[in-house]
Amino acid sequence: MASPPPPGIYVPVPTFFSKPPSNEPTPPLDLATQSKHALHLAKNGIRGLVLLGSTGEAVALTEDDRRSLITHIRQEMDGAGYKDYPLIAGTASQGVGDTVKLLQLSKEAGAQWGLVLAPGFFATCITQQGLIDWYTAVADHSPLPILIYHYPAVSNSLSLNASTFTSLSAHPNICGAKLSHGDLSLHSQLASSTIDSMSHDKFATFTGLGQQLLPVLMVGGTGAIDGLAAIFPRTVVKLYEYVKAGEWEQARKLQEVVARGEGLVVGHGVVGAKEGLRRILGFDSECRLPLKAGMSEDAWRDWEEVMAELGEVEKT
Predict the structure, then answer these.
(1) In this predicted model, what pLDDT tens digit does every residue of 106-130 receive, in sequence order?
(2) Does pLDDT of 73 surpass 90?
(3) Mean pLDDT over all residues of the chain?
(4) What is the per-residue pLDDT across 219-254, written as a single tens digit (0 to 9) for each?
(5) Does residue 274 contact residue 293 with C-beta atoms inside 8 Å?
């Protein structure tokens, strides 16, 4: 039975790109900035990284890009004293074979877990049994233990129900889930389950939304894989620690600020996350088409107040 990632706050890191040469449409990886940001997160309490997820623009990366990025981060983390630092590599393929191939590549490059997005292309005619069979086939052949990535907004509104997760949790190579949606009922059913295969030492339930971290932890959630933590790692870790320590008043107050700040990432996606990283931490990055990096001054002005509040918390 595979062990899940340890509890805590993880970051779905953006993939950093430098400006492309003239007449080149695809900006290259900026591995130097990638590793600087990763080390900044580790030094400020982040428990692990999700590479090549939706925030990482994974669908715009080649296999060579994937291998280079994971290998570089593993080498840099090990070299800086963070040996065996948790790295989770995302996949977003539709086929079993392609998904397993990416998981094999990720293991060879240094990741310890895979985060496997549900295959939503044929969402309107996929049954829950079809999803069970698909994930079972991936898990049977994956060299890495996998977490189920449940993100209906990028999976053609495809949803897995609680009984599907329960069935899949019995597989020895499936060890958790990331739930990137606001359905707290599903979070509760998974994180509070009394079924043996869903116990916390066998199956980790992460929310993908820091704005619901407090309630998810209250029902037994493992932690969060949270985009805002890419910009304010200490703040989101502090919220996690308040809840775990039972410091409810501090937790409630900080959750409210974090929830408002999360709107930048929820509302503007990768572009919003990269804008925050550029303006607040000085980590600049292009995006790959069709995404375009950058927000106007007027658009950013809507976020200045809450970003300043979060910045003050980050300093403490």
Answers:
(1) 999 999 999 999 999 999 999 999 9
(2) yes
(3) 97
(4) 999 999 999 999 999 999 999 999 999 999 999 999
(5) yes
Q: Say if residues 96 and 134 touch (Cβ distance below 8 Å).
A: yes
- For 22, the 3-state DSSP assignment is coil
Residue 7 Cα distances to 21, 90, 205, 210, 244, angstroms = 42, 18, 9, 14, 11
Catalytic residues: 178
Contact 106, 68 (CB under 8 A): no
Position 1 scores a pLDDT of 82
CA 240 to chain centre: 16
Number of Cβ within a 10 Å radius of residue 168? 21
For residue 267 the two structure tokens come to 């509302």
pLDDT recorded at residue 129: 98
Q: Is the pLDDT confidence value at 298 over 90?
A: yes
Is 2 in contact with 145 (CB distance < 8 Å)? yes
Which residues are CB-contacts of 298 (< 8 A; sequence separation ≥ 6)? none
Task: Give the C-alpha separation, 112 to 84, whole Å.
Answer: 9
Among residues 258, 227, 262, which one has the least CA distance to residue 241?
A: 258
C-beta neighbour count of 116 within 10 angstroms: 28
CA gap 106, 108 in Å, rounded? 5
Tell me the C-alpha distance between 12 and 315, whole Å.
Answer: 22
CB 166 within 8 A of CB 197: yes
Distance (Å, rounded) from C-alpha 147 to C-alpha 189? 17
Tokens of 97: 């074979």
| CB-based contact 120:130 (threshold 8 Å) | no
Cα 63 from Cα 275, distance rounded (Å): 26
| Residue 172 confidence (pLDDT) | 98
The pLDDT score that the predictor gives to residue 311 is: 97
pLDDT of res. 22 = 85
Per-residue pLDDT band for 4 (boundaries 50, 70, 90) equals very high
Interatomic CA distance for residues 42 and 46, integer angstroms: 5
